Amino acid sequence: MQLITILVVSFLGAGIVYLTGKFSGRVRDISAVLVSLAVVILVGLAYNQKIYTNFYSLPFLNLSLSLRLNYLSWFFAIIVAGIGFLSILFSLEYIKDYQGVGFYYFMMLFVNAGMLGIVLSADFLSFYIFWEMMSWGTYLLISYKGGKAVAAGLKYIIMSVAGSLAMLFAIVSLYASYGTLKFSSLASLLQIASPGYILFLLLMFVVGFGVKNAIWTLHTWLPDAHAEAVSPFSAVLTGVLVRMGMYGFLLIMYSIVGLSLLHKLGYGLLNFNYILCWIGAITIVIPTFTALLQNDSKRLLAWHGIGQGGYMVLGIGVATSLGIAGGILHTLNYAVCGALLFFVVGAIEHRTGGVRDLNELGGLIKRMPVTFIAGLAGISGLIGVPLTNSFVSKWMIYKTLIMENYPFLAFAAFIGTWGTILSVYKFLHNIFLGQLPEKYKDVKEVPLTMQIPMILLSLAIILFGILPGIPLKVISGIEKSFGVEPLSTTMFGMPKEIGELNLINILAVLLVAGIVVYLIFSLSAKSRRVNQDDNYAAGLFVPRGKYQYSARFYDQAYRIIGPYLHDVVDDFYYWLVGKSKSSFQIVRQIYTGNINTYALYILLFLTLLIFVKLGWGL
Amino acid sequence: MRTRKIISIIILLILAGGFILTFSQIPFGKDKINVAHYYISKGIEETGAVNIVTSVVLNYRGFDTLGEVTVLFIAAIGLGAVLFTEKRVQKHASKSKDDKTKKASLILRTGSNLLFPLILLFGAYIFVHGHLTPGGGFQGGAVIASGFLLMYLAFPKQSINKKSLSVVESLSGLIFVGIGLFGLIFSGYFLSNFLPKGIPNTLFSAGIIPIIYIAVGFKVGFELTSVIDDLLGRGK
Amino acid sequence: MSLIYNWMYYIASGGLILIGMYIILVKTNLIKIIIGLNFIDTGVNILLVCIGYVKGRTAPIFSTSRINPTNVVDPVPQALVLTAIVIGVAVLALALSIAIKVYEHNKTLNVTKIRGLKW
Amino acid sequence: MVNPSLLIGLPLAFAFSIPLFGLISKKIEKYIPIIALFINMVISFMLIPQILKKPIVVSIGGWSPPFCINLVVGPLGILLATLISGIGFLVSIYAVSYIKEEPTEKYHILFLLLMVGAIGIVLTGDIFNLFVFFEILCISSYALVAYYKDKEGTEAAMKYLIQGSVGSSFILIGVALLYGFFGTLNMADIASRITSANPTYLFITLAFLITGFGIEAAIFPLNAWLPDAHSSAPSSISAILSGIAIKTGVYGVARMVYTIFNANSILLFIAFLGLLTLLIGEMCAFRQDDIKRLLAYSSIGQIGLIIFALGIATSLGVFASLFQIVSHALAKALLFLAAGYMIYRVGSKSIASLNGLGKKMPLTSFAFTIGSFSLIGLPPFAGFVSKLSIVYAAMQVKKPVFLAFIAIALIATIIEAGYFFKIVQNLYFKEGKNLDKITESSGYILIPIAILAILIIVIGVHPQFITGLLKASARELLERAGYIGWVLGGT
Amino acid sequence: MIFQLILIFIMIILAVAAVIFKDLINAVVACAAVSLITSILFYFLQAPDVAMAEAAIGAGLTTAIFIIAIRKTERHEKEK
Questions:
Q1: Contact present, A335 and A464 (Cβ < 8 Å)
Q2: pTM attached to this predicted model
Q3: Containing domain of residue B216, as a range?
């Protein structure tokens, strides 16, 4: 089954959807869903096949673009296709009343196709081409809503162009020194390269992928982009698109440079991996606690996206087989949870007319039960409660940190989880629990096409939570392709030699505990359902206001740690832009408008030329 | 203003130094003729023109002159475009000017009436004998233009019919390019001298040269007149 | 004496070119700048002609058949100068017409004041 | 076998005949440039296969090469001639319905003669003839910049004229000195005798010629005229000036440095100049709020990139700069045409007034987006392939100075991305005021914009169409012995 | 030879005068005188064609065009 068909189907599909959009909305929606479903099926069929095809040649640079499929690319391809399909399904209802809907569907499918292209490409040139197409596609989608989204989109595209130009610099220097850009041949050629050159390459690639994966210093575009983008696209953005940076890290650090070479970089403690781990650790702590302080639900989730990205970087930074597996598994887990939570926020936004401020919402549990369950599954997935998928991956990351005895990194990871629990509780409580304000009295549940993706993702969280073996089998295949000795895993968890993790026992224990709690609860005194406001208040008129105290949840915490968590990196970037703007203003004044000065420039240039020669010549 | 003067003087001194250095390599008056030997020795029998400069201008380097005529054509058209004022504005302007422009003095009017045909004759003589005596299309045209300039000075209100000027201009330009294209058709080279050379030193010799120079003479003459007319802003 | 003779025409052409450039650099009146352009053109024409001049030879016109071909001045620079003069006039006419239009709009010919377009 | 001298003779005949056609009926004049340039395009397309086998040397007037003016129609010449005729043809279609200002007959004559000048520069093999065609190009562009006769137009034309004529005088001085040194005007003849003169004094002549052509090629200190001229000229003219006129200046510099003077020591200095032009152009462009002035400054930036690539003396470097010339000509012509019509419809040049045009003029803004993405160098478009080959050519040189240069060039690309993305956002994602009466552009406007956009995508996706011709022209520029052989060796 | 030297000297003086004159008409006249002397110099350089051209175009028409232009704009060069 040709890889090129996947790409052709997805790119042409986007075109066809746009064209059908010209005729009728219904046909376009159906065809969009069908195209993304077809892509999911095609990727699913290509499970464990090893394919390598040259699909286009550029003779004047004697280069050829080629595609390949192995476990790593299949793993990310299925995530891209899955989340893409679900977000298209989710946006059927969501996007209905926006204008330029045809453009939206075209761009969604185009960005998905770009991501598939990145994941499947086998040489850096096609990798870069698809990477850039994905970037400017995302730029158009982020600024799709207009208003504040325009500034967010511009901020995103500038940082992503800067990152990808750094990457282009490294790619072309690779091509200039080795004459080929194929991953396989580069992997062997780089073994004999000088450590300094490899460090330079890795630095450039880390900048390029770091911007996309929002590691700490390069993360400032992410909160605005997620907050302003359309919810279905924010789900794709946080779940999959940002993880392309992760795919890039895995690609450059393990499949090209290779584990053995990585250890040789740097001396003692200062080697490349250790620094990466520390960046990962900082990326966990600071964004998670800034998430704590956010009042806008999307911004809160965006900061969590950065935080969870820190776990993944930490995982693969440790460079043990358990760590790498933990990092990759966490990529999948967070993709599922992040997308699910953004679907939840999107559903609420859809029903409450675009309200995202946590202090306004409340008590929606009665009106939107399915969304509540999905939200509950999502946040428990985010925290890593046992029986959810990220419990397994966080467990693996903690275990490897402890076994490799990095105490401070482990401590940072724990604090991260602790911060996640605090802020995620605020998220769930303010939206679903507490008293339902009047204006949301008639809020109905979201239509079916928006519920299906939420339900599917919640089931996935639970499924991978109980049976981690499914993704771990693929991940061990990936580790084999990296040359790292693969992790021996059972369907339900880890075998004894790496420390027992058997999820079936945990499941059994929790089931028993659940039944016992239920029995106690149902046998106890019958509780009478009481309407909130018919309590006797000695004849006083009972105000209909909110009794709920949940507004401004962590106010005290905000006053204490707020000043420290001010995003200093963002200010640095704005300062930099301001400084360059003023310097451009000075440069602009070269053209004074006076013709004598212009003639002076011409003659100065002539005399300079004569002097340059006389100086050198004589 | 002071600093600008000082800087420009320093620059000009450096340029002067550059000039001196370069001119020292080109000795004045020495025989540096290289390609031109061919023109001088074989000029007459190949082009039939006695005035070698004319044969170089029209035959050997005819493309330059074609470019040259185009440059003048562009200048005239460009001037017309830049100084173009809509019809109604012009009528209004010429009406208001009627009263105060007094007629030119009697001497000037009669003198120019007398001289004008002589100048035209002299101009025509120059460009007809382009290949025999020094002079040619450009010089003859300029003389004709100065003749028209004299008429403009003498009669402040009159001006030439612009329509006929532009027709003559484009016609003579077409003749020049047409001869070039004919050359291409007949002997395979653009602007080649396909007409019989005739006997040197007689009026009807040197193939296409006199025809082209007559066309160029008319063109330059009328173009410079239309330039002056546009500048004076009297055109109808 | 021969030194002066050799350098006489170069001084003339170089002087004219440098004076023309000085005008463009320093003078602020638009018409004065156009005069400067005219000077540069004239200077370059003199340079061209005196490159073609050979001492003790006559003009390249064989009106009387007794001039043998060898002692004639180089005709090519003269052909070039013919073209250059007419190009000079063309540019000059266009420059003056645009100067008239600039004066119509800005009511001044002082270049330091005509600075609508800058930065 | 079509004679290349038709490429210049025919449009000249058409130009002279426009006033005569004008007598018959006023409407015909608008279509003559289209016919003339269409014929030119067809001739140059027919010539390409033949020239790839063996370049044609055509002598004007029938004498053997060093003794007459000859047209050297090599791969470089025919590449640029095709580009000029093609873009000229498209812009002449655009001008039919865009130019409404009164003396339209004079506009079309000047436009056609500007094209003749550009084609003449690219094909001629004689430096004085190069100077004459350069004059034709310059004078017709002076007149056309002042075509609107408004305050801005005349001032811009004034400044352009003074600097341009100073430049032309420098070229004429250079030509005179070359004649003084070698006694011949034929480029190949001079190239073969170049070693016989003392290199130090020869360099001063090269300095004059580079300054002269540099003014038209908008190298850093010499390009003060460009922002004013391109922003106040009619849009079809700024499209031609940005797309073609600057390229002929760059061709002039390249011909002088590579073919005639073989001055390899100055190439590093030219690369540095190119980089300086790139940086200054991009920096100034960032702060503009007038759309055409912004596009003019971005032209300066792109020309800086072309000259930088020219300064890399390897064959891939020249190949990359020629590729960038083609992709920039297409993209910049498209941008100026699209922006020109938007300004014409909206009424003001400021970028803020372009808000929300994406919905009212979808096709024009879509084409504008393609053009700007191609200029930034995003993948599926022609700009990406040319920028990639420039970066690769600079990297291949392995000298650390070129690594620093290309890093700075990439930073300049970020600046360029900054302002282009801002404009694209204004078009699509911002609400525009009183845009109700604006409708999509008419037929004559859309055809050239659509064709240019399609060309950019086609060359971006499948660059093989033109890479063969580009490689041959890069070889022609670098191997000057080959050039001399064509002209002097055999007719 | 001496006569040519004197002519060149006068020409340079006239050129400098054209720079200094405030009244544009005087400057134009000086410019015409320069081109007249140039045409005489061309005669001495054995270039009759060019001499005629320079005389007719340089001295004749250029001066006329300049004066027409000055009449349409300002006559005196105001310093500031």
A1: no
A2: 0.92
A3: 2-232
Q: How many domains would you assign to chain D? A: 1
Mean residue pLDDT across chain C: 89
Looking at this protein, which amino acid is placed at residue A75? F
φ, ψ for residue B29 (rounded to 5)? 85, -10
Over residues A22-77, the pLDDT tens digits come to 888 888 888 989 999 998 988 888 877 777 888 787 777 778 888 888 888 888 99
- Residue A367, token pair as written in the block: 């009106």
CB atoms within 10 A of CB A224: 21
What b/e sequence results for B147-156 when a residue is b if at least 16 CB atoms lie within 10 Å of its CB, and e otherwise?
bbbbbbebee
Q: Note whether B190 and B112 are within 8 A (CB).
A: no
What's the whole-number average pLDDT of chain B? 85
- Cα of A589 to nearest chain B Cα, Å: 18
Complex confidence, ipTM: 0.92
Task: Name the domain count of chain B.
Answer: 1
Q: Given an 8 Å threshold on Cβ–Cβ distance, is B14 in contact with A607? A: yes
C/E touch flag: 3 or more CB pairs below 8 Å: yes
Question: Which residue has 């075109």 as its token pair?
Answer: A15
Indicate yes or no: CB of B191 within 8 angstroms of CB of D67. no
Q: CA of D199 to nearest chain B CA: how many angstroms apart?
A: 11
Residues near A12 by beta carbon (within 8 Å), at least 6 away in sequence: none
Token representation of residue B39: 């023109």
Closest partner residue to B4 (CB to CB) among A596, A604, A607 is A596
pLDDT digits (tens, 9 = 90+) for A236-293: 988 888 889 999 998 888 888 877 777 777 666 677 888 888 889 999 988 888 888 8
Are the beta carbons of E68 and B232 separated by less than 8 Å?
yes
Q: Which residue type is seen at A458? A: S
Tokens 């006129």, residue?
D245
A606 vs B15: CA distance, rounded Å:
8
Domain boundaries, chain A: 277-519, 567-617
Per DSSP (E only), the strands in D271-339 are: none
Expressed in percent and rounded to 5, the helix, strand and coil fractions of chain D are 80, 5, 15
From B20, C36, A598, A602, select the one nearest D211 (Cα to Cα): A602
Tell me the nearest-neighbour CA distance from B134 into chain C, angstroms. 7
Task: State whether residue A180 sits within 8 Å of chain D by CB.
Answer: no
**All domains of chain C in start order, with CATH:** 2-55+70-106 (1.10.287)
What is the interface size between C and E, counted as CB pairs within 8 Å?
128
E78/C110 touch (CB, cutoff 8 Å), yes or no: yes
Q: Are D461 and D374 in contact (CB under 8 A)?
A: no
Q: What one-letter code names the amino acid at D261? A: F
Three-state DSSP class for residue A322: helix
- On chain E, the residues whose CB falls within 8 A of the CB of C85 are 50, 53-54, 57-58
Q: Which of E51, E53, E64 sits opposite B228 (nearest CB)?
A: E64
C33 contacts A591? CB cut-off 8 A: no
Contact list in B for residue A607 (CB cut-off 8 A) is 11, 14-15
SS3 C65: coil
Q: CA dist D383 to A62, B82, D305, D328, D388, Å? A: 19, 37, 12, 7, 8
Q: Write phi, then psi, for C97 (nearest 5 degrees).
A: -65, -40
Tell me whether residues E65 and C92 touch, CB distance under 8 A.
yes
Task: Give the torsion through C-alpha atoms of B149, B153, B158, B159, to 10 deg.
Answer: 20
Please choose, from the candidates C53, C51, C47, the residue with its C-alpha nearest in 3D space to the C-alpha of residue C16. Answer: C47
C-alpha span between B133 and B135 (Å, rounded): 6
* A–B CB contacts, 8 A cutoff, strictly below: 18
Q: Which residues of A touch C (CB under 8 A)?
A: 588-589, 591-596, 599-600, 603
Q: In terms of residues, how long is chain D?
A: 491
Token pair in block for residue B165: 């000027």
Distance CA D371, CA D452 (A): 9
